[in-house]
Amino acid sequence: MAEKSYKYIILGGGVAAGYAAREFVQQGLQAGELAIISKEPAAPYERPALSKAYLFPESPARLPGFHTCVGSGGERQTPQWYSEKGIDLVLDTEVVEASVAQKSLKTASGDVYKYGALIIATGATFIKLSDFGTPGADAKGIYHLREVEDATALYEAIKANPNGNAVCVGGGYIGLELAAVLNMNKMKVTMVYPEPFCMPRLFVSEIAAFYEGYYKEKGIEIVKGTVASGFESNEHGEVKVVKLKDGRELPADIVIVGVGARPNIGLFKDQLTVEKGGFKVDGFFKTSAENVYAVGDVATFPLKLYNELRRVEHVDHARKSAIQAVQTIKAAEAGTSVEEYDYLPYFYSRAFSLSWQFYGDNVGDAVVWGAKGADKVNAKFGAYWVKDGKVMGAFLEGGSADENKALATAARNQVPVSTIKELSNL
Ligand SMILES: Cc1cc2nc3c(=O)[nH]c(=O)nc-3n(C[C@H](O)[C@H](O)[C@H](O)COP(=O)(O)OP(=O)(O)OC[C@H]3O[C@@H](n4cnc5c(N)ncnc54)[C@H](O)[C@@H]3O)c2cc1C
């Protein structure tokens, strides 16, 4: 059992950790000042690739191809990059205890890490159906997706079940993206979700109808308005049937559960102020304890634009919050300051040849244009959310880089809808 001390420690080795490391380097870092401690065996990578190119039937993405910060056009930070920069990348190492008072972290093997400043970037963990007591939900062949090892296991299962039956439970990002890649892998795919349409947290029915129609044309079955209530397995404990609450049964060789995620706050939840499921931070990602920062999925931060506290589980925020925390730390050392975080929510997804982006807030009335009867090959349509005569949120399928930029500007500036000649021409 060893004890080590670092000026800075990043706890967690995901998206935020990779971007924070790069920012430390850009701001000036001495060898031996920074350690990243991660449960994962791989250096930080762009997690969204796992539900997309990682599972492609042809030339699937593999590490080191998508280490951070390639997702935003930056350098590919392989383990060698970290060692060249003098950063200790402590992989395959779970922190099991933490003391804010003693400024220390303890790993599963009993090693103790002391820090001057800590950035908590522990992300989130998928929710399992067994968490709700669904019978049979721990059978073999039921997959969840968060880390590269989950994606590898799923990839191998897909290869082992050519032309097999796959059921995606959940109609959010994970369900939609995975249904697409399973279909591309020639599996017979059924999606199941309780809501009346997919992506209900963002989409309105007209938008969802386009994607559901597209998926159906690809041969994906969609079962709505019911939930998976149990699973049956064969004598080897492998899932074979998904039982639905409405009495139907679906054959399954592979099941993917995408029903949401829970932020990993357990280590500190009694030591730091928690709000909306995450660590409450200020506009500089400072938690309630001195020299302890929280970024990415675990941070509940002031969303200045809407004057409210929010927790965001998206990659763009993970990157930007990490950068903000490091700039804050470095500015304090230099006796300077940085501007408060001023985030414009931004989400995106890609599946098949489709690709959409959303900026802002989906509040008010949704005005959808071009979705009905949109061309399936070169789909292009969008929506604006309008409140008190102002554009609050903007969505575009199939937009160019310039168009997406215009979308972001409209949502950021909350432009009066009366100044827009045509909604399709922002
Ligand atoms: C499959 C998938 C697809 C996604 N696709 C999109 C997308 O298309 N668009 C989008 O905007 N967002 C997407 N997201 C969300 C996005 O990836 C997350 O918001 C982002 O990764 C959050 O970054 P983070 O650094 O906070 O957490 P993470 O990237 O999850 O990293 C957390 C890290 O902390 C480690 N850790 C946790 N606890 C401990 C511990 N006790 N000890 C040591 N290490 C620990 C974890 O192992 C992990 O390495 C996707 C997420 C998933 C899972």
From TrEMBL:
Signal peptide: none annotated. GO terms for biological process: cellular oxidant detoxification. It catalyses: 2 monodehydro-L-ascorbate radical + NADH + H(+) = 2 L-ascorbate + NAD(+). Residues 6-322 form the FAD/NAD(P)-binding domain. Residues 344-424 form the Monodehydroascorbate reductase 3-like C-terminal domain. Its EC number is 1.6.5.4. It comes from the Eukaryota. Its cofactor is FAD. Pfam families: MDHAR3-like_C (PF21791), Pyr_redox_2 (PF07992). Keywords: FAD, Flavoprotein, NAD, Oxidoreductase, Redox-active center. One of its GO terms (molecular function) is monodehydroascorbate reductase (NADH) activity. InterPro entries: FAD-oxidoreductase/Apoptosis, FAD/NAD-bd_sf, FAD/NAD-binding_dom, FAD/NAD-linked_Rdtase_dimer_sf, MDHAR3-like_C. Belongs to the FAD-dependent oxidoreductase family. This is monodehydroascorbate reductase (NADH).
